[in-house]
Write a structure and sequence with these properties.
By secondary structure, the chain is of the alpha/beta class. The protein is built from eight helices and seven strands; from the N terminus they run H-E-H-E-H-E-H-E-E-H-H-E-H-E-H. The protein binds guanosine-5'-triphosphate (GTP) and magnesium ion.
């Protein structure tokens, strides 16, 4: 017998086990009224910069915290801690994505119920994270203007697994001749009707609209939980 069917079976079981843990996490987050947002993107698209800005702004009105995945370093957790929000690093070693069990473990000694928002930054890459549900309410895929407009067409699976897309580093758009219409058309070719935000974590331009969107989603979650 070839090794291929065995490999597929193991992969299916890993994903099934992940889905079970993710489902339990999602139920727990909903029962506790915590809105959970995960971030995926290519390495360096700007997840940590965007998260640092988001945590700093949200902290003024909400209880927020973050988990951040990385293969080898604690650099991102150190950067995010500057926002004064509680932050924990998950180091994945050789694994190119986070799994629900890692999130569950990282939260073991955390009072998630006291949070309004929990953010999870995934390991930077546009392939592996797409298959792994982390129990989040909202998955955001970031696309920075310096990557070019065609990433949605090249990596459709990750754009399909996300709920919302954010085009980042818009302060650099002119310098790299970023074509907004082409990028939006590519996102919508893969995922028709997907909500797309445009913003710069550096200048803060465009952050308001995104924060209003998050606040509305938190209210929805709380209303649904109350009925
Ligand atoms: N000009 C500009 N630079 C940005 C912006 N956001 C991030 N950067 C820069 O882009 C580089 C990468 O940003 P990170 O936030 O580390 O990206 P990341 O997606 O978290 O990277 P990984 O975690 O390694 O995948 C850094 O030098 C940031 O300062 C932005 O909105 N504008
Ligand atoms: Mg990062």
């Amino acid at each position: 017998m070839s090794a291929q069917p065995r490999l597929l079976e193991v992969r299916k079981n890993v994903l099934k086990q992940n889905d079970l843990i993710a489902r339990a996490l999602r139920e727990r987050f909903r029962a506790e009224g915590t809105f959970v947002v995960s971030l995926v993107s290519s390495p360096g698209a700007g997840k940590t910069a965007f998260l640092e800005k988001t945590l700093s702004l949200l902290r003024q009105n909400y209880r927020v915290a973050a988990l951040v995945g990385d293969l080898a370093t604690e650099n991102d957790a150190i950067r995010l801690a500057r926002s004064q929000a509680p932050v924990k690093q998950i180091t994945t070693g050789t694994l190119c994505h986070l799994e629900a069990a890692m999130v569950e473990r990282a939260l073991e000694d955390w009072e998630v119920g006291s949070l309004d928002f929990l953010f999870i930054e995934n390991v930077g890459n546009l392939v592996c994270p797409s298959s792994y549900d982390l129990g989040e309410d909202l998955r955001i895929v970031l696309l920075s203007v310096t990557e070019g407009e065609d990433k949605p067409l090249k990596y459709p699976t990750i754009f399909n697994s996300a709920d919302v897309s954010i085009v980042t580093k818009t302060d650099l758009a002119e310098a790299v001749e970023f074509n907004w219409d082409a990028a939006q058309a590519n996102i919508h070719a893969v995922r028709p009707g997907m909500t797309v935000f445009r913003l710069s974590a550096k200048s803060g331009k465009g952050m308001d609209g995104f924060l209003e969107f998050l606040a509305a989603r938190l209210s929805e979650l709380r209303q649904t939980a109350a009925t």
